[in-house]
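Subject: two folds for Thursday's group meeting

Dear M.,

Sorry for the delay on this. The cluster queue was jammed most of the week, so I only got both jobs back this morning. I'm pasting them in the order they finished. Each block is the input sequence followed by the predicted C-alpha cells. Could you check whether the formatting survives your parser before we put anything on slides? The first protein is the one we discussed after the seminar.
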Amino acid sequence: MAKEKINFEDEQVRHDYRHTASHIMAQAVKHIWPEAKLAIGPAIENGFYYDFDLEHKFTEEDFLKIQKEMKKIVQANYKLERFKLPRAEAIALMQEKDEPYKVELINDLPEDAVISFYKQGDFTDLCAGPHMESTGQIKAFKLERFELPRAEAIALMQEKDEPYKVELINDLPEDAVISFYKQGDFTDLC
C-alpha cells in the first residue's frame, strides 16, 4: 500500500478521515464482540466516537485489542462502498444484522429521507457519509478513553444503565501526530 499524504488543512478531508476511522473502530469492535450493538458514531471536532451497547465493559486492555484489529482492517485496505435502500429493505437489513438502534434511527427518519449505508469488507453501517475511499488511508489513530455515551445515544439506549463508548482522537497534522505519540506511551502506529 503506497503511502499518501493526507491534507489535514482541508476541513472536509479531516471530517472524512475521522468518520472513516469511526467505521473502522466499529468494525473492529464487532469483530471482537459480535454481540455489540451499534448506536451512533460520527466525526467530531477533535476526532470521533462510536456508542456501543455491550454487556462487556471496556477496559484499558481492550484498547490494545481494538487497535490491533483496527490495524488489520486498515491493512486490508477495504474500499468504502455507499449504497441506498428503500425504508422497508433498510429496516430488514438492520434487523437481520440485529442492530435495533439502527432500526430505531431509520424509523425516526422523515418519510422522504434517502437511507444510505456504507460497506467495507464484512461491515455495513447505516450512514449518510461521506468517507475516505478506503480503510487503508487511515494511517494514525489512538484509542484514548471510554465514557458514558452522549445524550443522543442515551435516548436510544434506554434499556441499559451503563453503555460505554470508545473515543478516538486523531486530527493532528502528520508531524504533530508523530510528536504527540513520541511524548506519550503509544508507539505502535499503523
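Second protein, same layout:
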Amino acid sequence: MKFLYDLLPVILFFGTFKVAQTNPDSAAALCNQWLGSGFQADQAPVICATAAAIIVSLLQIGVKFVRREKIDPMLWISVAVILVFGSLTIWLHDEMFIKWKPTILYWIFGGILLGGGGLVRAYSHAAHLALEAGKIITMGLCAILKIRADYAFHA
C-alpha cells in the first residue's frame, strides 16, 4: 500500500495527462480559468497534469500531518522538488521544468544514499581511468584565410 501511496502523484500525473490530451481545448480553458491566462491547447495536458501532481503531493503531506503520522524525508524531498519544478512549469508555461523533476530527484536521493563525498568516491576511479586513457594533443593555428565578398552577398 505504501508503494501505491508513494506513486500516487506519478499515477495521477499520467492519468490527468491522458485525459487532458483527449480534449486539449477544454484542458486549456480549465488551465486558463484556474491557473491564469495564456495557456495554449498544446501546453494544457502537461500543465493540468503538473497541477494535479502538485495538489495530490500537498494533500499527501496534509493527510499525514492531520493523522499525526511521521512524514518520511523522501516524501518531503519529493514534494519540495515537484512543488519547485512544477511551479516553474506552470509559471513559465514551459514543460521542460517538470521533465527535470525525476532527474533532480534521483540526483538528490543518489547523493543521500552515497553519503558525504559519495559522488566523488563513486566517480573518481572512472575519471582517473578516463584521464589516463586520453591522449594529449597539441592544437595550433594551421592557416589564416581571408575572404572578400561584395555587399550583395551579406543580405
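Two things I noticed about the second structure. The chain has a mean pLDDT of 85. The radius of gyration is 24 Å.

Cheers,
T.
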